[in-house]
Amino acid sequence: MAKTILIVDDSESIREVVNFTLEKEGYNVLVGVDGSDAQKHLNGTKIDLIITDLHMPVMDGIEFIKAVRVNEIYKMIPILFLTTESQNEKKMEAKEAGATGWIIKPFLPAKLIAAIQKVMI
Amino acid sequence: MEDVLDILHGKYLEEGKRLALEVNLILSPENMTVFSTSVFDEIFRIMHTLKGNSAMFKQKEVEAISKRLEVIYDLIRRNKLAFSSEICELTLQSVDQILNWFDEPNSVNRNIRRNQRNLVSKLSKVHALATSVETSSKKRRANSLSAFSTILESFKSFPVFHVHEDKSRLPLVLKAALIKKDWRK
User: How many CB pairs under 8 A join A and B?
Assistant: First the structure.
């Protein structure tokens, strides 16, 4: 059975690139345009991994993963940040909020897939 | 990878133009009536997205400008740099330049390239100056507010004329010119 990945990014272009890359690898993809919008998928739907941007309107990535981690169903699922942000302070903040890993944009699809496979084992 | 980027290049251009025009709209005199840090947050976020998208789609020229504006607006929203008429003007010029790049990607047009270099240099200077000058957060905020008022005033003294508009709404100087012209007839 195909695994499901939730992508959260306010950039339509990036969402499309990630979506295209993941679907090509056989993953099911769910999409959110910001943290608040992505919460609509946290309704018991089986999600195997979340990939989220950091800077987003309405609800940013840190606030979003805090909301994910308080939900019993999604408490343990891996969450990767996909962002251009590279400040260590932000990385630490994300780690404390419950992030599993950090991928810097721009990314190579092969590396994205490798990172996904590594955290989904 | 190349094929994914080629397939989605149109989407990148479409989104980029929309984001650039959003900045124009935010900084338009009609909308700049209320001073709010959320305006700078919004421009920061747009520049952040433009930078990320442009890096992904290998558009170095757009990335270079948006990266610098992102840093500048990050400083402004954190009260570490005062918003000024110079920054406002540079932002609007940058948006025009970005739109030029979207219309002519990988342009070899000398003017566009020269403008690009000048803008990047000016933006870098603003950033360098911001990080070298130490002023208190309160003072910077006060400076931002004062610059904002000055910009608003300059917009007020720069009316937009609509052709065929009622003459009674024209500024006195223009009315006088028209009366003079009528008298000569």
Answer: 53
- Tens-place pLDDT, residues A34-58: 999 999 999 989 999 999 999 898 8
Token pair for residue A59?
């609800």
Domain ranges of chain A: 4-120
Buried (b) or exposed (e) across B53-74, using 16+ Cβ within 10 A?
Answer: bbbbbebebbbbbbbbbbbbbb
**Structure tokens belonging to residue B94:** 């940058």
B57 → chain A, closest CA residue:
A106
Assigned CATH for B2-160: 1.20.120.160
Q: Per CATH, is A4-120 categorized as 1.10.3720.10?
A: no
> What interface predicted TM-score (ipTM) does this complex get?
0.85
- Asked, as a colleague might, if the bond just before A106 is cis with ω within 30 of 0, I would say yes
Domains of chain B, residue spans: 2-160
Q: What is the DSSP string of B75-140?
A: HHHTTSS---HHHHHHHHHHHHHHHHHHHSTT---HHHHHHHHHHHHHHHHHHHHHHH----HHHH
Beta-carbon separation of B55 and A106 below 8 A:
yes
Q: Which of residues 136-155 of B touch A (CB under 8 A)?
A: none
Q: Tell me how far CA of residue B125 lies from CA of A25, B115, B118, in angstroms.
A: 45, 15, 11
